[in-house]
């Protein structure tokens, strides 16, 4: 999945053993998690994945704010908390383990303290939609990344993957297609507008 040139770039990035943070950005369904997992397998114990999705606001809070129907939009995350975690990961002490949250699609909720990041792990891979957004707290993410890769895939394939994902986690086909059209695709347009801020485009078939 990952061409040798990308592996070589990563090897160079972590060559001195110091903490580096790689951001993987792309529209919903682009394959960010797939790329992150492939990198993890290539670098083995030298990498860990810390997903932006761990900072989803809880469903009860989205309901309170009236944003449940827009879950996945830029204002449905704890963006300040995400920035704070990235800052901690950059400055991690040699005697501490930092715990990051994850997101469980089967319950559609974030889970705190689920991912241990060891101090001697040189590469943190963080993947998400808004890492290159230049407003709000999101604007503070890009300076904390050593590199940002934009994951690019055929739009029709991406939309089909999204429909299948939503159906896999409980929506019927009509509801899945409606969510993709009215929520995911609105977010995708915004995310595509940030593409120029990436260091490179990672093409994914």
TrEMBL record:
Q: Does the keyword Ribosomal protein apply?
A: no
Q: Which part of the chain is the Phosphoribulokinase/uridine kinase domain? A: 21-203
Known SUPFAM superfamilies for this protein? Answer: P-loop containing nucleoside triphosphate hydrolases
Entries under Gene3D superfamilies matching the protein: P-loop containing nucleotide triphosphate hydrolases
The UniProt entry, under InterPro entries, shows: P-loop_NTPase, PRK/URK
Q: Which is one GO molecular function term here?
A: kinase activity
Keyword annotations from UniProtKB, A to Z: Kinase, Transferase
User: Any idea what this protein is called?
Assistant: Panthothenate kinase
